[in-house]
Amino acid sequence: MRVLITGATGGIGEALIQVFASEGYEIIAVGRNREKLEELEKRFPKRVVGYSVDLESSDEIDRFFESVDNLDINILINGSGVGEIGYFEDISYSDLKSMLDTNVLALTKFTKYFYDKMVKKGEGHIINISSTAGFQQGGALMSAYYATKAYVNSLTLSIYEEGREKGVKVTLLAPGPTKTNFKGMDKKLTSFEKLYVTTAEEVAKELWSGLKREKLIVIPGRINRILYFIDKFIPLKLKLKLVKRVQMKKIEKIFSF
After folding, report:
1. Which CATH number goes with the domain that contains 230?
2. Which pTM does this prediction carry?
3. How many angstroms separate the Cα of 84 from the Cα of each of 11, 36, 55, 108, 134?
């Protein structure tokens, strides 16, 4: 069995490599950091093959597809994602475009390419990593990021329903705040944050558990799952204020070091 993981050189992607390698999978690891990919190949000999790909480049993605076209990919995990935090007017269009290229266009391109191949085979599994942010109607101070994750959620749930009749499984992994090098999440956690912030390793293990139970949506962390259900009953304007307050705390952390 072979799994392809984008965003494999850190955070959740790297933690997923550990989980799938321990379960006997061959892993195609996709990321930008060539040195990190080589390190992963050495750490997991005969399990991991790394490909350095700039996911903001459609041409590079096409060349990558050509290089793996003859391989049987059983599972695709779209794990690559970036975020920009700050007031909308303070974030450059260039930075916004880079985020959209990675979070939306690259994810869609990978999903489309391998989903089509899986439909032809009549089997396969697509896993898109989104965020609990994707369930919100908006997120001040991370406006475009929240929008990209709403797109990922909608696309993933839609092709789940389409894929059921064609033998293709689809799963949405929607972590809450996760301790990684993501902006605002790479600092020391407060006692309160420790109650709901998960680690990349916890997210990876919960995904594996969810796959065994054939869950459509996997939300790691009990508190995050509770918040997901409570969120439906919070008035929109209050919800927007609360989300802004959370993101402001991240900004304060970023600039306090």
Report:
1. 3.40.50.720
2. 0.93
3. 17, 23, 17, 20, 15
